[in-house]
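Assess this one:
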Amino acid sequence: MPVTQLSKYYHVLCHEHHLEMRLHEILLESGREGKQILDFAYACTEPDCRVHYNFCRGYFLPSQEVRANELGMVPRLRCPRDGMSLYLAGINPQKRGFRLWKCPQCDGKCTNDEGLLL
């Protein structure tokens, strides 16, 4: 499977604030060894919002700050075609519940009204 290109522009929205997220480097901890690795992730631009997104993990909260009751607070949507983590790409203010989710790998789209739209 080809790796998703960072040079491509993705319009990733925060699932809570519906603001466009910005790509930046983030330090991640790796397993029990406590190794730290530098990775890229999108972060919400709302002050004090801890929501992040990257292609492998999907939406997440930075591990050093996560409390047990927060683990289920982020969407865990995967593309049925290639298994990649979907990102929120659009909302509709007139239809409050509408969400457009996109796959960064295959460009597949799905909504909460319909299934996968390829």
About this structure: The chain has a mean pLDDT of 81.
